[in-house]
From TrEMBL:
Single GO biological process annotation from the record: glycoside metabolic process
Pfam families noted in UniProt: PIG-L
UniProt protein name: LmbE family N-acetylglucosaminyl deacetylase
Alphabetical list of Gene3D superfamilies matching this protein: LmbE-like
Keywords per UniProt: Zinc
Amino acid sequence: MTNQFAEMPTDWRRALAIVAHPDDLEYGASAAVATWIDGGRACVYLLASVGEAGIDTMPPAEAGPLREREQWASAAAVGVTTVEFLGHRDGVIEYGTGLRRDFAAAIRRHRPELVLTLNHHDTWAGGAFWNTPDHRAVGRAALDAVADAGNRWIFPELVEDGLLPWDGVRYVAVAGSPHATHAVDASDGLDRAVKSLLAHRTYIEALTKEDPEAYCRNFLEGNMAAVAERFGGRPGVSFELFRR
């Protein structure tokens, strides 16, 4: 029998989502974000890049500002009001102390109890598709930065900048993981998640010939239905959960 997903914990109030590109959260996790915000929780989005290399037919100098604007509209669709961009170069984000420092600084600044990131493993579910270097680098750096944020002797310059250690992260949730363990019933967030993904219209129109709205709805409904098979029939969003 397939292992069933456990319920995601609810004993937290503030989340920080750390991902590589615009649209990373919208391909699934945003329905959970909408549900959390409905429950009175807060979520901040932190993006390592503006996704300027994501549209083959559009030069990065043009694509970057456009994708940034689309991400703001996308976040607003699920109730997120704070979006920050770090300006790392799309496609060649490198794991290392610089990336960890940037993420640790954001964790100290926003003081979340839950950190959300995207699949950091080598492959996506089923192992048929190789993950991208940006996703792997950002996901792994986010996991490491949670510990960095709580240690005053790692990146002591952050303390000098007024960013005191924060060891209050209780959970790290990895969306899109092939090793998911928990899920959120996100039925009520589906329509807003569709709207949120659809906000990346320029990117989606470059990605597929399908009608954008049908593409977004079919993708998200399909993912949530797959989660339902291991979540008591409830459409949801799954996560690999690490407790601290």
